Amino acid sequence: MFCIRIAAFSLILSAFMSPALAAEDPAFDFETRNAAGEVVIPAVIPVVYQFVSPGADDASLVLRITTLVANAWFDAIAPYNATAQGVYSDLGRRPQEEHTDANRNVAIMYASYRILNSLLPAQSPVWQNMMLDVGLDPDDNQTSLDNPIGIGNAAGNALVAAREMDGMNQLGNEGGCSFNCQPYANSTGYKPVNTAYELNDPSRWQPAVITSSNGIFRVQQFVTPQYGHTDPYVISDLEQHQVVPPQDSNPDLAAYKQQADEVLEASANLTDAQKMASEFFNDKFESLGFSILFMAQSRLLSLEEFVWLDLATNIAAFDTGIAVWREKARHDAVRPFSAISYLYGDQPVTAWGGPGQGTVSDIPGNQWKGYLNAADHPEYPSATASFCAAHAETMRLAFGTDEMGWTVDIPQGASRVEPGVTPMQDMQLSWDTWTEFETDCGISRFWAGVHFMPAIEVATDLGRSIGERAYEFVINHINGTVD
């Protein structure tokens, strides 16, 4: 790994697992604790759940936040290492005697404060309290490079300047908008050929009508289609990361019906383990985020090593998302729910019948839904499967092994889709290796009815290739061997 050292890291996972703000702690020990894992992450997670993505499943938005925060941490602590160089700032090198976790933690806090106020300005009171709770002054705006406050501010400010106009339309003013602009609005001109109410082309993506069963309904929009045009970290040529076209999306071919029937068969035979794995991997914090914390705790990473690992895995997923989003827009492929409705209409099919209904044999094809709602973007390739492949490859390279050894306890009735019903009894999800983790992650999208198998099958190579580049990118920045 990155020169693994023993460190006091036992509190990180427990702090991260609780989706609540860090407890007020004016006596926070900056020398022995981990501000990134114990303060910043617990402050960010509930904000994302409440104001960005209730299920942490809008991957492009979640990954932008987690990646830029991780980048802020890395750049803030680079001056406190003998060789490391920031990604968006070169703030010099502090003397060896200043290379302490106390200085790193303070710099991390101020860099986090700057980037979070850029990404989520409406939640500025949360970020102020995050600083005050550990005894730091959020109004200290100095950028002197002879102390950790100034270094953190300088690193955060440089990252904000580099990323606010990077193609993601964070400010809403890209794509020619001058008035009433909305952050992250579609700046590409993409429009679906199908409406939520009429399937004009059964090979192409159809927006779904989504509800939380509260009487409010919304029609899906392709979330941040401009993500495919956002500045990447490690991809120099997106054409090198294209996937073969989805041949089975042609409704004139027998394979179109075959892949739809495969989804229905999986739906009819859903197990509690498959349902809970699908929910687990759908939440990018629970799956990708928590796995980083698990590795950091179980492998006894230092603060510095945790930051390095977090940046590598986040860049791997973030850049993979850029490639995936471009391919999704290019192929604009149909989702299972549309194809099954098109093929079967009012005819009954055998499948999962909805929350608490189990398997039924009389559900009309046009009323069938997957165990999870399809995400707000086209089918092909699978984003989640690609993210997990990139994440797993980065982990394998970082630790020099495929070994994982992670077990997650799932209490009876913990399902979000079937609360109180699924699973029928306490159970565990476990992965001995990263290969098992990425395999389960990918196929969970098939179990959940949100993807056909071809969208998953092309995801592994795409994600792994970008994960390898992300690892090398971070290693070069750690070693200071950057062009």
Search tags:
mainly alpha, two-stranded antiparallel ribbon, 6 strands, 46% helix
What is the alpha-carbon Rg in Å? 23 Å
Q: Write out the strand line-up for the largest beta sheet, numbering strands in chain order.
A: 1-2
Strand content: 5-15%
User: Portion of residues in helices?
Assistant: 40-55%
Shape, per Cα inertia axes: globular
Succession of helices and strands: HHHHHHEEHHHHHEEHEEHHH
Task: Please tally the β strands and state the result.
Answer: 6
Task: Summarize the main sheet.
Answer: 2 strands, antiparallel
> How many DSSP helices?
15
Task: Average the pLDDT over all residues and give the rounded result.
Answer: 93
Termini distance? 23 Å
Given as residue ranges, the uncertain stretches (5+ residues, pLDDT < 50) are 1-24
Which structural class is indicated by helix and strand composition? Answer: mainly alpha
Description:
With 483 residues, the protein is mainly alpha-helical. The chain contains 15 helices and six strands. It has helices spanning 12-17, 35-52, 59-77, 101-119, 124-132, 148-163, 254-268, 272-282, 285-298, 303-331, 336-344, 383-399, 434-447, 453-457, 459-479; strands spanning 209-211, 217-219, 348-352, 359-364, 403-410, 427-433. The strands form three sheets. Strands 1-2 form a two-stranded antiparallel sheet. Strands 3-4 form a two-stranded antiparallel ribbon. Strands 5-6 form a two-stranded antiparallel sheet. The relative contact order is 0.13. The model is unreliable at 1-24 (pLDDT under 50).
